Amino acid sequence: DTPNIVLNVNGIEVIYNHVILVLKGVSLQVPQGRIVAILGGNGAGKTTTLRAISNLLRGERGEVTKGSIELRGERIENLSPADLVQRGVVQVMEGRHCFAHLTIEENLLTGTYTRRDKAEIAANLEKVYNYFPRLKTRRTSQAAYTSGGEQQMCAIGRALMANPSMVLLDEPSMGLAPQIVEEVFNIVKDLNEREKVTFLLAEQNTNMALKYADYGYIMESGRVVMDGAASDLANNEDVKEFYLGVG
Ligand code: ATP
Fold first, then answer.
1. How far is the CA of 38 from the centre of ligand 1 (A)?
2. Which ligand 1 atom minimizes the distance to the CA of 61?
3. Per-residue pLDDT tens digits for 22-38
4. In degrees rounded to 5, what are phi and psi of residue 246?
5. C-alpha dihedral (205, 39, 64, 167), degrees to nearest 10
6. What is the DSSP letter of 58?
7. Residue closest to 164 by CA, chosen among 4, 36, 59, 33
8. What is the rounded distance in angstroms from the CA atom of residue 103 to the CA atom of residue 121?
9. Given ligand 1 and candidates 19, 22, 42, which is best to mutate, with the most ligand atoms within 8 Å of its CB?
10. Mind listing the pLDDT tens digit for each residue in 173-229?
11. Ligand 1 centre and the CA of 139: distance in Å?
């Protein structure tokens, strides 16, 4: 049977600076408990799609001018990022965005958006350390002095401190060595399987993303040009030729 659709993006158009049409009618669905990947090259519109969902376009002088975005049936185009956190949706932005001058643990604690009791926060922190043992080792290190992989883990860990049911993850592999990318994706898979966290991730690393995702949408110039089960996409001749570097 088909799982519930948590997120339904329906034909959205996004315009930057009132004139630059960047998304030309993008539709996608994210079922409960799945890992869905948005794939495609530089400038295809992956980040813009995530920003539209988490309502982070305004700061970029962008707006959704057509279509709709629904979270569990509720229209969310006008909700603030804080409203979305309350509904269990958290975005991890591209480029990691850890606070360089704070320690790893202080960074994680900034993720406890909502006021909750100390015991709950401590339990949450332990859970994050369980999934990311590297962060536990580095808990008192200033983020600036940790590796790129540790900073990416820190950014994901901080998102988890808000107890999300769904995480939007922008380009988790960016700038990381293949082995570290694998480590990060393994943790994502673990969180998905054991904590039932739903993921929508944007990735240029098609190969890696299709290994871990359940379903993929391939974008080009602001449109979805192909979508399908990850295993089908990984075996598709066109996908192999154009996105997997296999001729
Ligand atoms: P990348 O992997 O480089 O982030 P992407 O697939 O995420 O690529 P977007 O960042 O969504 O692509 O960019 C899509 C298009 O929108 C690009 O042509 C880009 O130049 C343009 N764009 C992105 N942000 C803005 C902005 N703030 N103002 C104007 N144009 C923008």
1. 14
2. 27
3. 999 999 999 999 999 99
4. -115, 120
5. -70
6. G
7. 33
8. 17
9. 22
10. 998 999 999 999 999 999 999 999 999 999 999 999 999 999 999 999 999 999 999
11. 34
